[in-house]
Amino acid sequence: MATVQATMAGSVWKILVSEGEEVKAGQDVVILESMKMEIPISAEEDGIVQKVYVNEGDFVNEADALVDVK
User: Which Pfam families match (predicted)?
Assistant: First the structure.
């Protein structure tokens, strides 16, 4: 299982996937907002979203778990 992690601290602006959804490597799964910039976070491998750990509006720190893909 691969855990998609935040690459920087910021707010979760948009969640682009839901649990049970199939994703491909490189597909954006979450968009963070930091310093008025939108930062897309992508899945690193193909799989099915097992768990979404965050909600829109949540604040996350660098390396926090966002989504599990298996």
Answer: Biotin_lipoyl
